[in-house]
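Batch manifest, entry 17 of 40.
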Amino acid sequence: MIAAVVVTHNRLSQLQITVARLLAEPVDHIFVYDNASEDGTGDWLAGQAGPRLSFHRSDINRGGAGGFAHAMAEVAQGLDPDWLLVMDDDGRPAPGAIAAFRKMDKTGWDAIGAAVFTPAGEICEMNRPYRNPFWRVREFLHTLVGKGRRGFHLADAAYRPDAPVVEVDMSSFVGLFLSRHALTAAGMPDERLFIYGDDQLYTLNMRRKGLRIGFAPGIRFEHDTEARQGASGVVLRPLWKVYFMYRNALIAYRVAAGPWFWPLVPVLLVKWHRKARDYGPDAAMFRHLLRLAIRDGLAGRLDRSHAELREYAENS
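Output type: structure tokens
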């Protein structure tokens, strides 16, 4: 059995496309976790529910991390699928993706990550998997000689449909197939992360437990993301998202880098502070939120709520 989990919040138009795409695929069950949407999502889902589609409406917005944690636990306990497939409401399989997954030889793999593209057919950079350079000599040396993220993220050639399945250490929650064994061994994502980095931390910790994640270029997904790229990377809106992005990134770097973490921190701080230029008149607030994120990330603090951060960004 393959069961798909979709986490949604106030993006009904995207969810409708994703659910239709999933229903057209050979997926045994689709479970939608509605993170307290206020755009009619709950009413629409109530009208769609049937033998292959069920949903849960949360009373509060638990963020992507909380949505995945609760949804994955409910599906694992209630349906006990052979494979559980996860995605956001704006991520969806390309036609034929699930059939391709069913046909592939999955021997030796605990999880399989799809090749994620934009609707225009370009590789979706925010979903590009990587091989941790702190665990792998080849990737470490390539990164060290100045290749940056190109030294450890999968190259474009790995996305060719005829390219082999390769082992990765990080795969995103857009088109990630998790085996029953992986769910038992790795548990659920940490809902305290709220948004950003939950998939990175989850898959890195899978690898630390000895689980194997394969990147399958023949299984294509589409990510219709609204994220905007600035000169130094993605620009986050609303601004409260800055806190979660960088706090969680620090926590993920601690897992990935191990003993190299503290020497790496000054490099990260310089790099991240330069991103303020992409925020124009909001640069000062970006810096405030970044400082708070760095302080909490270094301390491992995970108890700040979404409501607290939103109020801070709006009223400071």
